[in-house]
Amino acid sequence: MRIFGLNIWQLMMKMDGLILSLLNIFILTKDVFKIKQRKLISRNRLDIGKKRDIYIVLNGPSLSNQDLTKFENKSIMFVNRGFQHDEYKRLQPEFHVFVDSKMLTGEWPISWIDEIIKMVPTITFIMPAKWAFNEKFTPYIDKGVNIYWMTNKFNLSSLGVSGTCFEFSIKQNFKTIFFTGFDANGIGHELVNSSSHFYGQNSENLAKTTLDYAQDLYMHSRYFVSLNQFSKYALKKDVSMVNLTEGGVLDMFPRMDLSEIIKDSVEELPSKYN
Hints:
The chain has one domain: sialyltransferase cstii, chain A. By secondary structure, it is α/β, with parallel strands linked by helices. The chain is built from nine helices and nine strands.
């Protein structure tokens, strides 16, 4: 059966997308009236990218097979448990992103921030603006730790930490977004009880029920829809996005082998961006 030229699954995806867009508008409108949050955001540095390239390192299992030392002396962004990578301290990343509410609930220890600062004293953390008023972060604010308080204007709620990385990079005027470790198949690994990240499994996921997985699978389907939308958004913004991940399932971004990264810059991007 087809309705408006769409099969039932395509129609459901369209309806879901509309509902999520309306929810996003509501959330953004509500945040506009939070005066403290607006003042905080107004102090964020602007144009950090200055037309540089940025290298985003996500935590997929493929990362174990890649030589990240090729990113040395570049503008690098890590996320979540990425600081556990063997090359983290050597690479001295410029940014580290946390947006998962596990940091607020205590599932992820706040001491991770201290561990990161010990390795990279100049690091800038990127975190949701609403966290700034949580007492857990007060000591870091008082000590003058570099924190960029982020709000998402593009509807990237289903993309989690990767969406925040991408939106920050576009907002801050980076020229080309290279990313790796974005296998985008973590839910598949979890279902067969294999490593979903380069460091292994998230212990907090081991107790998931079939209902938890039903929700995760639904979210994962939205994930792919949002990534396809975002790839078009990036092109409209004249920002090149290049997937350096070894393997993985993403087909909406042009690919390039990490071994092609040279000392100062990439001389030629994949054909889609030429």
